[in-house]
Amino acid sequence: MVFNRLVELNSLLKLNSFFLFGPRGTGKTFWIRHSLPGVKLFDLLDADVFGRLLRRPRQLGEEIPMRERIVVIDEIQKLPSLLDEVHRLIEAREIKFLLTGSSARKLRHSGVNLLAGRAWEAGFYPLCSREIPNFDLPRYLNRGGLPRAWLSPSPAEELKNYTRLYLSEEIKAEALTRRIDNFVRFLDVMALQNGKEMHYANVSSDAGVPTRTVENYLQILKDTLIGFDILPFLSARRRKAITRSKFYFFDVGVANELARRGEVLPGSAAFGECFEHWLMTEIRAFLGINRRGEPMQYWRTKTGLEVDLIVGDKLALEFKAVPQILDRHLKGLKALREEGLVRDFAVVSLDPVPREVDGIKIYPWPEFTKALWKGKLI
Q1: Are residues 200 and 285 in the same domain?
Q2: Is residue 4 part of a domain?
Q3: Is residue 189 part of a domain?
Q4: Rounded to the nearest 10 degrees, how much is the dihedral formed by the CA atoms of 348, 350, 351, 353?
Q5: Are 146 and 271 found together in one domain?
C-alpha cells in the first residue's frame, strides 16, 4: 500500500537543497523513490556505496552525470565528511541535494561543514490522520503511525523489533553510550514519563544513573529524533507557572511498546494519555510539514490549572478523551484567557458534534483534524 505523504519533495527541491530528518522507519526512503522516480540516489546503508565514498569522497561528483540536477544521499549521518564534497558540487554544478538522516546527532556533534546554510532543513514524521485512508483512532492509539506497524498483522511484534533495532543500530553501533544496560533502564523509565513533567532527580533514581547521565541520555533521544520536548509557557503574569518541560516520544505505538502497555482500550486512563500524545504528534507534524515556526508549549500553574498545548500566540488547546465536555474541563483555558496572550481557545474531545461554550470551541476530534490540515486553526 502506498500512503500519500504530505511532504512534497518536488516542491521543496524547487526551492533549495534540503536535509530531510526523520526517525528510522517513518518511510523516508520509500517516499523518495515514489516521489522522485529515476533520481540519482546514494544509499549509505549499502556497504559498497559507503566503502567507496569513505575511501574517496570526491568520487561522489564523478558518479553523478553532468545532466543531473537532483541527487539524493540517504542516511548522510553515516558519512558526515561527505558534506564537503556536497558543498563543492552545490557551488560548482548547481545540483540540488536531498540529504536524509535518521539522526542529526552525528552531524551536529562532529564539527563538520553543515553546508553553511546552503541546505535547509525539513522534517519527516510518522503517518498522520490525513495520510491514512479511513483513519481509525483506536487502531492508531494502539499501533501508532509507523507504516510497517500500521499495516502489520502483528503490530506488537513489529514495534518490539523496532525498539530492538533502535538500540542496536542507533545507540550501540554508533557508540552513543558505553553502558547500553543503563540506557535500556533509562528508556524503560522514560516510557512511563511520556507526556509528564520532567523531574530529572526522579528519573535518575528510578533508572539508577546520575542526573548528568539522564541529561545526556535525554539529549541522545532528541538528537536521534526519538523524542521531543514541549516547553513551559512562561509569558503569563497573573499566575506563577511551572518551569519544567515535558517529553514525548515521536510515536504513540513506540511509546506503548516501551511502556509495555498491551491493548489500549477506549475509556481507560491509557486511552486518554494516548489520545493526548497522538494530538501532540499530529499538530507537530502539521507545523513541520507546513514549515511553520510557532512553538509548542504547555501551561501549568503552581495551583494546578493546566492547558495541554499552546501553539504560538494563536491557539490554546485542551485534549480530553471523554464523550462530553463539562464546565470543569474548561477551567485551565478560562484562566489562561484572562491573561490576554492567546487568540483562540478550544477543546478536542470525543464529543459527537461541535459546539461552543463561553467562547471556547468544542471540537470532536475528526472535525479538529480536518480543520487543522485545511489551515483553518493555526
Answers
A1: yes
A2: no
A3: yes
A4: 80
A5: yes
- Residue 107: phi and psi, rounded to 5, are -65, -45
Tell whether 1 is covered by a domain.
no
Q: How many domains is the chain built from?
A: 2
Non-local CB neighbours of 18 within 8 Å, separated by 6+ positions: 12, 97, 98, 99, 119, 120, 121, 122
Give the tens place of pLDDT for each residue, 182-199.
Answer: 999 999 999 999 999 999
Query: Number of C-alpha atoms within 13 angstroms, CB side, residue 10?
Result: 7
CA-CA distance, 363 to 366, in Å (whole number)?
8
Asked whether the whole model's pTM tops 0.85, one would answer yes
Q: Distance (Å, rounded) from C-alpha 367 to C-alpha 353?
A: 9
CA pseudo-torsion sign 279, 250, 36, 108:
positive
Does residue 88 share a domain with residue 61? yes
224 lies in the same domain as 297: yes
Give yes or no for a contact between 44 and 76, defined as CB atoms under 8 angstroms apart: yes
- How is residue 67 written as a grid cell? 545532466
pLDDT (tens digit per residue) in 16-52: 999 999 999 999 999 999 999 999 999 999 999 999 9
Residue numbers of the domain that contains 171 = 129-373
The one-character DSSP state at 290 is T
Give which of 254, 274, 255 is closest to 264, Cα–Cα: 274
What is the distance between the alpha carbons of residues 42 and 48, in angstroms, rounded to a whole number? 10
Distance CA 336, CA 207 (A): 35
State which amino acid sits at residue 80: P
Decide if 18 is inside a domain.
yes
- The closest of 322, 319, 352, 358 to 338, measured between CA atoms, is 358
Instruction: Tell me the β-bridge partners of 364.
Output: 349
Same domain, yes or no, for 35 and 54? yes
